[in-house]
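Wed. Picked up where I left off yesterday with Molybdopterin dinucleotide-binding region. The coffee machine is broken again, so keeping this brief.
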Amino acid sequence: MTTEIRYRNCTLCEAHCGIAVEVDADARQVVSIRGDADDHFSGGFICPKAYGLKGLYEDPDRLRRPLRKRAGKSGDAWDEIGWDEAFALVAERLGAVRAEHGADALGTYLGNPSVHDLGANLFLPALLRALGTRRRFSASSVDQLPKQLSSLLLFGNGGTIPVPDVDRTAYMLILGANPVVSNGSLMTAPDMPGRLKRLRARGGKFVVIDPRRSETAALADEHHFIRPGSDALFLLSLISVLFAEDLVDLGRVAPLVRNLDELRALAGEFSPDRTGSHTGIPAAVCQRLAREMAAAESAVCYGRIGTCTQAFGTLASWLVDCVTALTGNLDAPGGAMFPEVAARASAPKAGRVPYARWHSLRGLPEAFGELPVATLAEEIEGQGEQRIRALLTMAGNPVLSCPNGARLSEALRSLSFMVSVDIYLNETTRFADVILPPHSALETDNYELVFNSLAVRNQAKLSPRAIEPSSDTRPQWFILAELAGRMMGLPKNAAATVERGVLDFVLEAGLAQRKAAGSAPPSKAEAVAALGDEPGPLRILDAMLRTGAYGDGFVDGASEGVGAGERGPALSLARLRQAPHGIDLGPLRPHLAKILATADGTIDLAPALLVNDAERLRALLAESPRVAAGAPAEAGEGEGEGAGEMLLIGRRQLRNNNSWMGNIHALAKGRERCTLLVHPSDAERLGLRDGGSAQVRSRVGAIEVPVQVSDEVMPGVVSLPHGFGHDVEGTRLRVAREHAGVNSNLLTDEAAVDVLSGNSVLSGIPVAVQPAP
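Structure written out below (tokens, as returned):
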């Protein structure tokens, strides 16, 4: 056996660590995977998920060819069909629904693995435009949507998200995030454990605010419990201290900021003395943390999934950035900064506000072209011409990852037609009529369009496929492009036509940006000729790179980037191919003034939409806390003798990412991980024992789950991971079924959302807990 090493990135989380894949190319086998010690960004670090790429490639349950459902007396059966037949069937059925009931009778759901794929990033917009529907949903509204909305209001672009400059900061305040396990989220940062340890080694400090003493909290200088869902109150209290003690210093962004007095007035209503009983954080601690941040040489406030997936998600996301700005650390080294990416499809239009242009049947606003996924089931259940009749899902499992999975399952069952672009027959795709499976990650050429814009250091790296795919399989970009072309009425083999359209769009935008920046770009025809004839994502990426901030501008032999006035290595696809370990483009640099896309070119620290929503915080402050921090929950309020009302939170785990990896033996094996963490005082009061079972009930559902008694959760709070529940009929997930766990989203309530963004409330869910019968 002759093997070779192929270098690329792992794509199973946001860190995108560099890996060395040993392959037997002739046998199309993966021999081993290890960290790439020469990778400029990750330096050899990987987590267990990287090894899972081998298992994913080899998984016998992974689909390789299209499936069509065939109903039978004994249940549904599936037949493999050819690609052309599958494309024709999907286009015919979707087209028939659209012709009879209109484009909004179609719906789409996109899972977050699609964000990790270059082909999906480039060709999904074409497919969505071809379908023509406004009933679009994605995992964003059970994830980061509040952060995108607050960034839109502050900076004019939902993609302009401040990234902690963790490698240079002297002080880091972390809320609702566990980067030691997540490897950074909305913060692409391989080896977060090492980065945080180095922060402390250079004399810095980091503090974690979380209802659970997480793996990150265990490494921190300090950890403070906080009542789930009260982060906005705590952040406003920090801000009130900064104003009251004259500690505000806006630093380099001072000329850009307006409405500072409005923020001062609002924060003044939420002093630490008023909020402490609701947050569980004593006033003295809040005051000290505010003073420490203000006094630090550099500091950054970072909030993530816990600050997003709560009733005040947009407010908390906004206030995280306000704390950083008010201490002089926005767009400053060691604070929160903005990467300069090497490849971008097009620049945002200043003043464009993609929000509340249409609404769901419930009245929740659209954001960035999507409706909240909490409304998906009711949009399918709607009456008459208002309902979704056909659905396309891609790389997602909303039955396990979205609120009230039981209701959503029944809704999916009622569809006239469903097609899924997915590699598994899972808890969601079992309802599809056709499944179109793309290549696995190791068979796919890739480049991080999205996560480079969230990286803690400017960088660029190509991830060539490690294994050549079989000729009877199809890449994801081709599936999306072909579907788009068919829905546009193009003839067979429409993918090539759609690909050229995407290339033209990207190239025209890039050449126009170069010209506006004062350079002399080639003609479009000359540029197309230079890009070659091979259709697909890579030549489009080449166009982005060469017209981008570090691009060679189609100048042969260029040694420095000439686009947009930036300096650095002249980038092109060919240049990236010569750098298998990636190219370091330097530390983050202050440049917010250049990328602000607000209508007036300023940062409004007190947007009216957010200030008005603070009325809900006032109402919360006027109530008695349901669960006072450090005190037991009220007993007897749930159903059943001895039940107690608790607040449910989730938790991340290193060996999985949402519901993606349950069928990979190397990651699923080992001890039971789907357990309910319960504080010892609550366990004693409720009659629960370690290793026993608890019944957990919410407004919408109930589950039974193993109990793990632990003081890592605060009293009154229980913790359950999501992404489990693999025990339903009709799937092909043999390994996952052996480690099924329970579906936490049978408990999440589709009626509970952050009213501004429509993001689902997944943290701080009221539940009643008692011993299982």
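Quick read: Residues 562-566, 627-643 have pLDDT under 50 and may be disordered.
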